[in-house]
From TrEMBL:
Gene Ontology BP annotations: mitochondrial citrate transmembrane transport
Organism: Candida maltosa (strain Xu316) (Yeast)
Subcellular location: Mitochondrion membrane
Main location: mitochondrion
Signal peptide: none
Phylogenetic placement of the source organism: Eukaryota, Fungi, Dikarya, Ascomycota, Saccharomycotina
Keywords in alphabetical order: Membrane, Mitochondrion, Repeat, Transmembrane, Transmembrane helix, Transport
Annotated Gene Ontology cellular component terms: mitochondrial membrane
Protein name: Mitochondrial thiamine pyrophosphate carrier 1
Function of the molecule: Mitochondrial transporter that mediates uptake of thiamine pyrophosphate (ThPP) into mitochondria.
């Protein structure tokens, strides 16, 4: 019995240690680097040209608390994602292990390890999508709240609500230019059906709306005036306005981005490593003896490559998961086309610098925290309470 117990304990303890270390390092890194995420998302959704045209004050956060708005969703998502990845990978590798001789020593192969990695990556990406949608809405709500406070002197509603002399519900010969051409309409507010029609179809809506749509429009007005600034309040807001679809937006582009990140990072890292040591005979990805400077350089170049290649995908994901993503855009290609035409090619690379800093810092920080927590958990697991020694 003692031999059986001792042979099984390391496996269970190793998984528990890995879980604790993974979730702790994920939560710490996500918290420490979240300000870069906030700034990146805000830069991607802001239209600086339009803001300058209408003299809109900056809508960036004015406190640390505001800078971390949406951080709760990201941290929670990171913990769930990383723990799911570890459990799924551990289960899938065991499930696909081969026992070719009917013995007790199960074995696996390199292709099956790759398949296990793909399976765990697929599952973890599914977890990312809902939390990313919530995070983006929370950032937009904080940004809208700042704009509402700083734009009180403009004399009109920046959410696009038609009131007074801005009313477009007149006869056809009295209709002036659409609202979005006559005033600043915040991209962080829920756009009314009228504004969406003007923005996409360049026409004014006539006639009434169905009762269901009227209820949604009333909710838009309410949440534009009182944007939710808490996690559960934002989830309630999103569900009331869009239903379950509010948490699944951007599914395809998120999978594409995640695949692109992994492929570009690994390919760049391995290619650069081979340039540094072209005569190496080691086949593992991260093999070779490199100095601290070379290791930093490898990580720096890989991070730069990830940003250069996948930044447009990240921008498209942010727009598709924004408050008005479903109303303004049909798919990734139409989103890219509209951004290119309306804001220019550089719109697809907004937020590159803060995202680069996040990617650059996250890798080293995660590894450092993971190693530290792993040592602590391992040391604690070997201690016995109430021991006479």
């Amino acid at each position: 019995m003692s031999e059986t117990k001792s042979s099984q304990s390391p496996v269970g303890d190793s998984l528990l240690t890995a879980l604790i270390s993974t979730t702790t390092s994920a939560a710490f890194t996500a918290t420490a680097t979240y300000p870069f995420d906030f700034i990146k998302t805000q830069q991607q959704l802001n239209n600086e040209k339009v803001m300058r045209k209408w003299g809109i004050p900056g809508n960036y956060p004015n406190s640390i608390a505001q800078l971390y708005k949406g951080g709760s969703a990201l941290v929670l998502g990171s913990v769930v994602k990383n723990s799911t990845r570890l459990i799924a990978y551990n289960w899938s590798t065991k499930f696909m292990s081969i026992d070719s001789h009917g013995g007790h020593n199960n074995k696996t192969t390199a292709p099956r390890i790759v398949v296990a990695g793909v399976m765990s990556g697929f599952i973890e990406t599914l977890w990312i999508i809902p939390f990313e949608n919530v995070k983006i809405t929370m950032i937009q709500n904080q940004t809208l709240a700042n704009e509402l406070k700083r734009c009180t002197d403009l004399g009109y509603d920046i959410t696009g609500k038609t009131t007074g002399h801005h009313n477009v519900h007149h006869t056809a010969h009295k209709v002036n230019k659409p609202i979005y051409l006559r005033q600043y309409v915040s991209p962080h507010a829920y756009l009314s059906a009228d504004v969406v029609d003007q923005y996409i179809k360049h026409r004014v809506r006539f006639g009434g709306l169905p009762s269901k749509n009227k209820a949604i429009e009333a909710l838009k007005v309410h949440y534009n005036k009182h944007p939710s600034l808490t996690l559960f309040g934002t989830v309630k807001e999103m569900y009331e306005l869009k239903g379950i679809g509010a948490f699944t937006a951007g599914t395809f582009i998120t999978f594409t981005r995640q695949i692109g990140i992994s492929w570009v990072w690994l390919a760049t890292y391995n290619a650069t490593r081979q340039l540094l040591d072209p005569h190496t005979t080691e086949n593992n990805w991260f093999g070779g003896k490199h100095s601290a400077i070379e290791s930093i350089g490898l990580h720096l170049l890989s991070s730069m490559a990830v940003i250069m290649v996948t930044q447009p995908l990240d921008v498209l994901k942010t727009h598709l998961q924004s408050k008005n993503g479903k109303s303004l855009y049909h798919d990734s290609l139409s989103t890219a086309y509209n951004l290119f035409i309306r804001q220019g090619p550089w719109a697809l690379f907004k937020g590159s610098f803060p995202r680069f800093l996040k990617v650059l810092i996250s890798g080293g920080m995660t590894a450092t925290v993971y190693e530290y927590v792993e040592r602590m958990v391992t040391a604690a697991s070997n201690q016995k309470i109430f021991s006479e020694e």
